[in-house]
Write the structure tokens for this entry.
Amino acid sequence: MSDAPSAARLTIPRPMAEALLELARAELPNEACALLGGDASTGQALSLHPTRNREASPSRYSVHPDDLVRITFALEDVGQDLLAIFHSHTHTPAVPSPTDLRAARYPDAFYLLASLTDPAARPDEALRAWRIRDGESVETALVIT
């Protein structure tokens, strides 16, 4: 990540937000996960990188370590920051669970969650963004352009 200050909001292009929901629905019954690259100083998402869920579980996720390393280097190569960590909740709201809070290791990244409780939900209904630091979550503004 860069030394630039972290943005107060996450901005995602609508096609990327729709692709995230498609990814989440395609991974059912398991949780999906992905990494978003972008500019940490503005909060603008520029790239989407689907990852494997190491847990292969409907109630837990863990970005596969091989994917994390590969994508982190790829983001550095193009001058992007690891902007957001995405995962889906298959049966619960897009709110960090106690497990999500314990597992969060990137305090400068946004945590972007999708709820799949409503199969017809649009991105602005299903997606929510959070900051997780020291086991505490704070919702942040999510702008879909």
Residues 14-26 form the longest helix (13 residues). Helices lie at 14-26, 65-77, 98-103, 123-126.
